[in-house]
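Course assignment 3, question 2. Fill in each field.
Student: A.L.
Task: Predict the tertiary structure for the chain below.
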Amino acid sequence: MARTGENIYKRSDGRYEARYISGRDDNGKAIYKSVYGRSKAEVREKVENARREIQGESSPIEGKTFKQVAQEYLENAKGTIAATTYDRYLDALERDIYPEYADTPMSDVTAAEINRFLKVATEGATKRGRSLTKSGLMVIKAVMSNVINFASTAEGFEKAEIEWDRTSYEELTAQEMEMLCFKAKHNHCPELLAALLSLFCGMRTGELCALKSEDVDSTRNEIYIHETAHRVRNPKRDEDGENKTVIIVEEIPRKKQIRRVSYPAILNDYIDEFRLPGKPLIRNSSNEQTDPRTLENWLKRIMSVFRMKEIVFERLRKTYIKGKADEQVLNNIFLGLRSDSPYAGHVDVKWLTEELSKDLTSLRLLIGLSLEEAADIIGVSVGMYRQLENGSREITWDQYMSILFLYHYNMRTTDIVANLGLYPDSLKEKIRIGEV
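Answer field:
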């Protein structure tokens, strides 16, 4: 592994050794040379003199502070990084890094110093009246490392190596995929539409937020992905009445995969419910543009209601990338079929009884029944009803129908039963007898 930060170490003979890049061979590989001294300051000076001799000019960062170099880095990177990334870097610098390093000589800010600062940054942020999350620490690490690398390139030194501690996401299980599709079928809302498009089309949250009705071709069942949405600082935020942040929609550079993706044809009716000319497909209650962070929070909130907190956009897209997004599951759920059913209109008894068991206690409490009252209405013992609620006993089909009758025809729980999918169309068709 390459050394990070200053390439200086203490030898066994007590001297310090520093390596620097003296040039490159025909293949572009770095050629290193070493200098020695009795102190770090001495070898730093020798390396600096060697660099000047190689380049024949003064150091571009000599005597500059970390803040000055960071500002140069941001100006240099502004046209090459996304607007949202630029905003996060600038925010991290101004809020967390400059209070500690604004006047610190650039040469004193090393990779080792970054690691030290990351251990105390959260405490420093708390003292300034704000919290610092794990993702915030990653942004701090990224921008400080990039500033060091920017300075190192100018100096001809070896770049700092950045080690990322990223969260590893697993693809959805078959059960989670079925559950998500079922909840989406019975709860039509923008966040669940976004979840389905992420799962079956691999769309990123920024792409989902920028998606327009006109980008969806329902004839070919294709989506044209060419824009992405970000929430960034408002350049007019200092003016009275202006929001601190604004949502911007940018064209995706072609090299970053402008593309057309196919979506399952069975989603056409679902998508049509959200079409509104001139408006984004995924939008808030005021029919206005939303941003990736807000969309992620919407999904988090509704998944919490469904007791499916582990489902996030990162896992949905990971499932698509791994080729595990099974459209047949979606088709079977939306058509009311089991995945192994050869005919239409099949009632998934096992799924319905298991799902009712999860919601039995909440439904009873919503209409204010005691265990004894509920057991008496259903016609079972109190002990048996308690077992049905805690899941230690499986609900039989005749018990399911009795419980469904109770809660479906109670005004407090009718809509909830429908939203949970406990009275599906396939079951309604089965019990609709003798209609003309």
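Instructor remarks: The chain has 18 helices and eight strands. The mean pLDDT is 82.
Grade: pending
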